[in-house]
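Example record

One chain of 299 residues, shown exactly as stored in the release files.
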Amino acid sequence: MPLPNKNSEDDLKLKAKIASSKFLDNAFQVIGVVTMILAILVLGTLIAKLFIDGIAQLNFDFLTKFPSSKAAKAGVYSAWVGSLIVILLTAAVAVPLGVGAAVYLEEYAEKNWFADFIEVNVTNLAGVPSIIYGLLGLGVFKYGLGLGSSLAAAGLTLALLVLPVVIVTTREGIRAIPGNVREAAYALGATKWQVIWDHILPYSMGTTLTGVIVALSRALGETAPLIVIGAVNFIAYLPENLLSPFTVLPIQMFDWVGRPDPAFQQNAAAAGIVIIAMTLGMNAIAIYLRYYLRRSIKW
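Predicted structure tokens for this chain:
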């Protein structure tokens, strides 16, 4: 009577395990593709509905008129100007601080429990709800520093909101730089700061720009923090300085959506198109800069 071949049984088990793993892998790919297609369809449907409702209202007058109690005369002039100023303030504060913090944590900070503690908290802050930052801005900037419901308070609040994103993405860009770049620069006598300024920052700029544009795109659409610090729903003039009252496009949309007149719903849709256009414009600039920088840098 022939003895059972143990090797054959092991081979069969191994083949069955490989087949099962391949099946699960293929199933996961199919689920991922289907999920992605559904998400794109939902997003495309929402954007299409937005354009269908608002494209008729979108014209030069709509962009150059102030808000009004009559839908036919209402515009988003003060809102898009306010959004642009707030985003510029946010970038002016968050980008230098975020890049500087990332450089310090990656290049200067000692690898100990305190650095690990900071890293964990920075990562966690990226997921904190935006309303919490609004309350922080209310207590620190509006009342603590006496900035009131101003552009400065809004810019600083949103800068805190997006700062963790800038730090995390910049650190990822710095980590992706090969170590031989640093070694070659040190071998030629460069100082640590020269290595960072002339090599590390330029080579990581593509990833940094990606993080910045993602962060600013989030800030552009935020409503809750600005409501908390006192952004106004109706303002029929442009801000005179950084301490002036303000409104932004999401706040204007929020106001119009809550009105019963269907014409204001169309105005809100048109304002949504303006937000999408501004976001795409920022992304286009970032993509161009990233492409230009990558072409100009020689590894």
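Notes: The longest helix spans residues 6-54.
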